[in-house]
Amino acid sequence: MKLKLTYILSCFLFLACNDKNSVSFEPLLITTDSCENCTLVRIEIPQAVQKTKLGKTINAALEGEIIALLNFDEESNAENLAEAKEAFLFDYEELAGKFPEESTPWEATVEGTITFENNRIITIKLESYIYTGGAHGYGTNRFLNFDKLSGKELYQEDLFNNLIEFKGYAETVFRKQENIPITGSINKTGFMFETERFYLPDNIGYTENGLLLFYEPYEIASFADGPIILTIPYTKANSFLKYPSKP
User: Fold this and answer.
1) Residue 6 above 70 pLDDT?
2) Is the pLDDT of residue 228 over 50?
3) Predicted local confidence at residue 223, as pLDDT
4) Rounded distance, CA 208 to CA 206, Å?
5) Which of 22, 87, 108, 144 has the fewest CB within 10 Å, making it most exposed?
């Protein structure tokens, strides 16, 4: 009887731990009313349902990224997505009042999708487009990685066993992909790495096809070149990763 009770308790604790680290999502949509010649804000992201550490971390990280994207005025003190949307609309109205001849409506769209999930890692991509006047808007992707067991957001230094070794390997792959000679300046074919040396982008995320390195427009090339993307299959990346993934 004692052995049976111990087994039941162990199963209960195992399920409790699994439940603690699991996460499910529901869609969150924040948008402005549709009208002609109006500033548009549309935010569509997954929102974690559970109020666990992991759920709270994911929701807070997504919210923080989007608030920063919508922050045209550095003095804005928006604390949530609804306030960020209203601040974006207010900033447009204020600028249009000062310069009515240049009052082309602004636009901000953000869409979040889960690009990868296993028993340890979950990655969410924020695809955004922001237009606040001028010749063109600015679109980019942002990848956020989370440790499902610890409930923490993972930054670049948290992903690799040896960041320097991975950077060296990534440079070799990058040079091959972009037809850059293996020796000589990384900018030899027209890239714009500062200090003439290869570096990793801030934006790295897990995808089903492999580890994705995303250089934003302007980061290492001209805006016309668009984003520069390097995808390293897990068969090659796993030896460098603290969180290896099955190919």
Assistant:
1) no
2) yes
3) 84
4) 7
5) 22
Bridge partners (DSSP) of residue 45 are 28
For 12, 41, 74, the CA distances from 105, given in Å and listed in that order, are 56, 11, 20
Per CATH, which fold does 156-240 belong to?
Actin; Chain A, domain 4 (3.90.640)
Gap between the Cα atoms of 188 and 41, Å rounded: 41
Task: Give CATH superfamily name and number for 21-154.
Answer: Fervidobacterium nodosum Rt17-B1 like (3.30.565.40)
Q: Is residue 168 scored above 50 in pLDDT?
A: yes
Dump the DSSP string for 65-94. Answer: HHHHHH--STT----SHHHHHHHHHHHHHH
Domain boundaries, the chain: 21-154, 156-240
Q: How would DSSP label each residue in 104-129? A: PPPEEEEEEEEEEE-SSEEEEEEEEE
Residue 218 backbone zone (phi > 0: left; psi -120 to 50: alpha; other: beta): left
Chain-wide mean pLDDT for the chain?
Answer: 89
At 85, which amino acid appears?
K
Q: Which phi and psi angles does 174 have, rounded to 5°?
A: -60, -45
pTM for the complete prediction? Answer: 0.87
Per residue in 80-120, pLDDT (tens digit) is: 999 999 999 999 998 888 887 777 899 999 999 999 999 99
- Provide the token pair at 116: 């990868």
Place of tokens 């310069």: 99
17: tokens are 């731990």
Q: What is the pLDDT of residues 9-24, one digit of tens each?
A: 343 333 334 455 678 9
User: Do the Cβ atoms of 212 and 141 come closer than 8 Å?
Assistant: no
Round to the nearest angstrom and report the end-to-end CA distance of the chain.
Answer: 45
